Amino acid sequence: MTIAENLHAIGKRIVNAAERADRDPSTVRLVAVSKRHPPEAIREAYEAGQRHFGENYVQELLAKQEELADLEDLRWHFIGHLQTNKVKQIVDRVHVLETIDSMRLLSEVKKRAGAADSPVNVLLQVKIGEEESKSGCSTEELGELLDVSCRSSFVKIKGLMVIPPFELDADDTRPYFRALGELRNRHGGVSSLPELSMGMSHDFEVAIEEGATFVRVGTAIFGPRRP
Ligand SMILES: *Cc1c(COP(=O)(O)O)cnc(C)c1O
Q1: How far is the CA of 115 from the centre of ligand 1 (A)?
Q2: Which residues of 109-144 are buried (b: 16+ CB within 10 A; e: fewer)?
Q3: Pocket test for ligand 1, best of 3, 33, 163 (most atoms within 8 A of CB)
Q4: pTM for the whole thing?
Q5: Up-side HSE of residue 18: CA atoms within 13 Å toward CB?
Q6: Which member of 77, 170, 171, 198 has the lowest number of beta carbons within 10 Å of its beta carbon?
């Protein structure tokens, strides 16, 4: 299967999952996770109509942006662990920073976006339940991060993001996705936090049934990653 064929097949599965959940399929956007795949793979996906791409590493993202500078309407999502000292390198180069999970990081984003005079969209990454992952704020910290004082005209908090523990059976991930939706409802609902970034190659349909607006899919589009 080519990248274009994979994108087409996933597009159909997105529509079906959205319809099962009585949702408008256009409210779900596919983020093609291109980490450790070469720029040519991104170009191929772009030519098939894909616009949102996800990257995990700052240097890799910057190198690909340079290589693909002719593709003007690419929308980059930063989805990796972000170190505070790297914020300034990407804050004015991405469509959305999906992994903001501490006050320190949020303050740095505010400062650097202001200095660059470049507003940036942000998702707050939340750790849910017994998740082993070190990333993500606790549900208690989320309230602080959402405090109005943390917002500025340069930092637009658009929603929440979660990386649940890997479950062999995709349906076992459902409680985590549902919990993220409930957390959103406790903090102003769709009108204040419209985006939910959740679901990957093996469980994006479950995530869509639970309200995902961004699904982050890598392997199912590009195949296995290089080591
Ligand atoms: C790598 C990655 C993905 C994509 O995972 P696949 O299983 O290849 O679809 C999604 N989200 C995050 C945060 C990732 O790091």
Answers
A1: 31
A2: bbbbbeeeeeebbbbbbbbbeeeeeebbbebebbee
A3: 33
A4: 0.97
A5: 18
A6: 171
